[in-house]
Amino acid sequence: MAKQQASPEAKSAGATIYSVADHAGVSIATVSRVLQGATVVAETTRQKVLAAVEELGYVPLGAARSLAVRHHEAHGLVLPELSGPYYAELLMGFEARAAELAQSIVLVLTNSRTDLAAAVRQLATRVDAIAVFGSPAISADVVRLLRAKKPVVVIAGEPHDGAETIAAENLGSARELAGHVLGHGRRRALFVGDPDSGPDIRNRYAGYVAAHRERGLDAAEPVRVSLSEADGAAFAQRLLDGEYEADALMCANDELALSIMTTLQDAGRDVPGDIAVVGWDDVMTSRYVRPGLTTVRQPVQELGALAANRLHELVSGEPPRSQAQMLPTQLVVRSSCGCPPTH
Amino acid sequence: MAKQQASPEAKSAGATIYSVADHAGVSIATVSRVLQGATVVAETTRQKVLAAVEELGYVPLGAARSLAVRHHEAHGLVLPELSGPYYAELLMGFEARAAELAQSIVLVLTNSRTDLAAAVRQLATRVDAIAVFGSPAISADVVRLLRAKKPVVVIAGEPHDGAETIAAENLGSARELAGHVLGHGRRRALFVGDPDSGPDIRNRYAGYVAAHRERGLDAAEPVRVSLSEADGAAFAQRLLDGEYEADALMCANDELALSIMTTLQDAGRDVPGDIAVVGWDDVMTSRYVRPGLTTVRQPVQELGALAANRLHELVSGEPPRSQAQMLPTQLVVRSSCGCPPTH
DNA sequence: CTGGTTCATGTAAGCGCTTACATGTCACTT
DNA sequence: AAGTGACATGTAAGCGCTTACATGAACCAG
Which domain holds residue B270? Predict the structure, then answer.
């Protein structure tokens, strides 16, 4: 009956470090100390404080701490969207590494935004550093950010002035993949995808061209379609209508390849008999589909993790790298290219 | 030559509202006013301020604003992971709605965390409200959060004391789906998945049982496996080995269904001839696979959007709903259930 | 018993914003 | 010419933390 002075319901909502200190009979400095765990506090006082925290349901106000310590302990990540496994994996890798570094992550998806610039500006307001996926849509704002001196790393994008770039290797594996297809004797291979949609696709096309050149072959102009299932199906239809002629299709990514391949098959074409189809990314579906899709696997999670890691290093004062970092990539041969099925 | 007094390189990194005010020759209050855009400011001063902001590369410190206005303008989202389209879509829906409401979103993935409780506590520190996906792993911490009086909504989880719940409908569509399969004359249908892994799966199993009961049939015990491709393949192998006997499989989700179906097919079984297989979620692969997978489509994006929306309403002072909200769900009949192919 | 250490704790000064309130200016009215 | 509003801007008091520094208690050596 002795300690019932505390108002039983005045708790939680507005608990601050002051109310906790009061409740525990100590100063706010002591409360802060036990919560940060850095300095030594006598065990008995620590228990008192913890009890008060518990009792009041105290949750410290992150903003106040951030203001006092002068950083946010948070990284920003700007991605176009999350459909398909690519960005999701990137995000997982990023999140996992950020978690290890005790950084919160705040996410912005650009496709859902009408005012992208405002969103990015807002983001810059609450994080210490930002990783941006290199969609062409955002370059201007990235530059603005740079001027505002938040460390920025660009993932799979154009090397912007001053911002670090990290990406997966494209040119070499694209050359290898195209070479593999040509090795099956295909002579009318088409590249499907728009090289202008970013450096990734541009380099894949460059690899396709290089593979042709090495063999003294002419590389066709790319078929410029977006990386969506719908555009894939539409292109396949045009192919069926005779608008294009090809015995192999090197698609800019798996989603495109899959929708094209399925549309062709449903129309009675034999893949790879009549026409080979290869993709890029090695999404889950590519394993399940028959024939299995030959493609290229990127270390997407690692890409994300690396971005988070660099961000942290930059925040900790390491100098920016001028050289773009490049992660190796791996050819995955299944049977849509003309190789015999192996499953 | 007259206005070159400004130090050319002292910019950005440490620009504060004070330096901007100095630079523009106004008070910090005025700077704040033009940046918030709420109060009227004379056009000429507004221009001066904007120019100073631009020149100094000023980015306001979110933490300071949050502290002053006493909320974060951010929502938290706690998800197990992001592999597969389900969570990614949920996140997209959530993000899109949050963006409309001008809320930042900070993301925590629980599978990558060793100390989940700490992560959630940290999260609570920097957001106004939290949406938690209802994995059983986190219930205890959710309760702690509730005590600490941050609004919480639980997505597809157990109705925890005080926390709102929102979910997609399971029981009815599961009954419908199971009924459909039984309608093909299958009499040895198995449910594959663990009803104890959460209310979603539990209700799907309940629907399976109800469909049997309605027809005077006995429902078998569920085959308790986790929702992963690996476990699916393992189960398929045991089925092939004769450990189970079945003419239909109702799987707890598509990933399971797909890996099982493919494993069976690769072993020479005819789906749906020998055995029907149905799933849940309608992931992209389910469209591409042959036979097309019969499944149930959930309004996953809407689920996410609804969560974001409720969070905002709760933060704005609306009273919590005691009734769980339930979104309708839709049977997608393709041919893995025994129906003729339609594509 | 005194003075010097050591160690736990308290005191108070910010961190960079927002905003209620006070002040000053102008343009009218009378 | 003085009084009155209306309006733009400045002043200053917080918001809830962290942390350098000051204080005081406890202990030990001399």
Answer: 171-298
Contacts of B326 by beta carbon, 8 Å cutoff, 6+ apart: B166, B167, B168, B169
Q: Does any CB of chain A come closer than 8 Å to the CB of residue B8?
A: no
CA distances (Å), origin A227, targets A193, A260, A279: 7, 11, 11
What are the tokens at B142?
Answer: 């959710």
Kindly state whether residues B286 and B146 are assigned to the same domain: no
Whether A80 and A156 map to the same domain: the answer is yes
Q: Touching check for A307 and chain B: CB below 8 Å?
A: no
Residues 6+ apart with CB under 8 A from B127: B72, B74, B75, B76, B106, B150
Shared domain check, B117 and B146: yes
Cβ of residue B32 lies below 7 Å from strand C: yes
Same domain, A164 and A150: yes
CATH for B188: 3.40.50.2300
Q: Which residues of B touch A262 (CB under 8 A)?
A: 288
List, in sequence order, every residue forming a beta bridge with B153; answer none if it has no partner. Answer: B131, B164
- Say how far apart CA A104 and CA A82 lie, in whole Å: 19
Provide the number of structural domains found in chain B: 3
Q: What residues in A contact B89, CB-CB < 8 Å? A: 82-83
**Cut 0.85: pTM above it:** yes
**Residue B343 placed within a domain:** no
Nucleotide C26 C1' to residue A250 CA (A): 73
Residue B42 approaches strand C within 7 Å at CB: no
Closest residue (Cα, C1') to C15: A68
Q: What is the pLDDT along chain B (343 residues), one digit of tens a residue?
A: 332 233 333 344 578 999 999 999 999 999 999 998 878 888 899 999 999 999 898 999 999 999 999 999 999 999 999 988 889 999 999 999 999 999 999 999 999 888 888 899 899 999 999 999 987 777 666 666 666 678 999 999 877 766 889 999 999 999 999 999 999 999 999 999 999 988 899 999 999 999 999 999 999 999 999 988 889 999 999 999 999 999 999 999 999 999 999 999 999 999 999 999 999 999 888 998 999 999 999 999 999 999 999 999 999 989 988 888 999 999 999 999 999 987 5
Degrees, nearest 5: CA angle A41-B113-A130 = 95
* Domain contains B164: yes
CB contact under 8 A, B284 and A288: no
CA of B69 to C1' of C12 (A): 24
- Provide the positions of strand D that have an atom within 7 A of a protein CB: 7-12, 14-20
Contact A76, A153 (CB under 8 A): no
Q: Do residue A317 and residue A277 come from a single domain?
A: no
